[in-house]
Amino acid sequence: MTWSGQQDRALHEIAAWRRAPGRKQIFRLFGFAGTGKTTLARAAAAEVRGTVLFAAFTGKAALVLRSKGCEGASTIHSLIYRAFEIEERDASGNVVGVKIRYCLDPFSAVAAAALVIVDECSMVNEKLARDLLSFGTPILVLGDPAQLPPVRGEGVFTAEQPDVMLTEIHRQAADNPIIHLSTKVREGGRLARGDYGDSRVIDIGRFTPEVEAGSDQILVGLNRTRRTLNARARRRLGRDPNYPEAGDRLVCLKNNKDKGLLNGGLWDIAEVEGFDEDGVDLRIASCDVEGQRADVYVRREFFEGCEETIPPAERRGTDEFTYGYALTVHKAQGSQWDDVLLIDESSAFRENRARHLYTGLTRAAERVTVVLS
To answer: Where is the UvrD-like helicase C-terminal domain (predicted)?
Structure first.
């Protein structure tokens, strides 16, 4: 492959880092969408003697990595943690249930790897980063500074300046409608209505039920829009309007390392195990990590859209989830879907307007429909 001057310099910088005696553990390769970060990471991996592991924060991002030739890409969580079961017993000592918990796996493949490459690194929080770095393995992290700044507690790898910053868009990538649209937004332009290959930009007046139901994931800017579209999605599916049901899609709102819960992770309800006056016990299955399950207790207010009314003391010891048919762009950071429906509410974010819209656009891997609201 023929590299641009900027890409060639990046590969030389990565190689020099790997050879350097007493090298630092982390190398930061940042770049805008379409600059070839993943392609360069694959090329750098091919020069490594030993095992190279590819990882991302979410299962969706790991799937995208695999589709780009990063063989075996997985979530960071599945790479470094292992599950174990804890029996629950009643007062007589009888087993009444089994809870699933997670701990750091000392025998993780990371321990023997020559290099770990982490994509969408802005989503990695301090605890996850610390556990990943504890193996001592060199880490090459990939990030995009044009995206929204990470939410509080995350962005450990993006807190420092990049070792290499890629700014030149690949000629091939420039022909991709999603790259074209996101680059235009990043450079301060406005999106014009029309068709862009399989993608399109439409007015709110063309936002029909067929458009609403036709994507893999709906992304919005505002929580009130998210709640409205989640309610409509559940109504289309014939769900009980008052209670979550088996099969409902949820998004995690708070980390819980013992249960393997990560803020922003998507889950499906496998079983509703019981209700009480305050909340619901659920067994859930991860949409991001194959085979991962968890038992959670969620206050009912999260499903009623009034979670802000819960006193802080009463939130302790509970898990936080809400419906995930529609997500905010903030919550979707680190994930990708083939076909995204993006309700453009970026004007609500003022100085971060362009970054909000850019982040939403780049959550789409193949097609995006932007609704100008």
So the answer is: 323-371
Residue 114 parent element (H or E): none
Alpha carbons 345 and 219: distance in angstroms, whole number? 10
What is the total count of domains within the chain? 1
In this predicted model, what pLDDT tens digit does every residue of 69-109 receive, in sequence order? 999 998 898 899 988 877 777 777 777 667 778 899 999 99
CATH code of residue 135: 3.40.50.300
pTM, whole model, 2 decimals? 0.83
Domain that holds residue 51: 5-170
> Residue 294: helix, strand or coil by DSSP?
strand
248 is a domain residue: no
Helix, coil or strand: residue 225: helix
CA distance linking residue 337 with residue 317, whole number of Å: 32
Return the closest-CA partner of residue 246 out of 275, 272, 285, 280.
272
Q: In degrees rounded to 5, what are phi and psi of residue 142?
A: -115, 130
CB 53 within 8 A of CB 20: no
Residue 228 lies in a domain: no
- φ, ψ (nearest 5 deg) of residue 153: 95, -10
Helices (H), the chain: 5-19, 37-46, 59-67, 76-80, 126-133, 171-174, 177-186, 209-213, 223-236, 301-304, 312-315, 329-332, 353-361
Per-residue confidence band for 154, with pLDDT thresholds at 50, 70 and 90: low
Both tokens assigned to 332: 């979707």
Nearest to 180 by CA among 52, 289, 32, 337: 32
Residue 301 maps to a domain = no
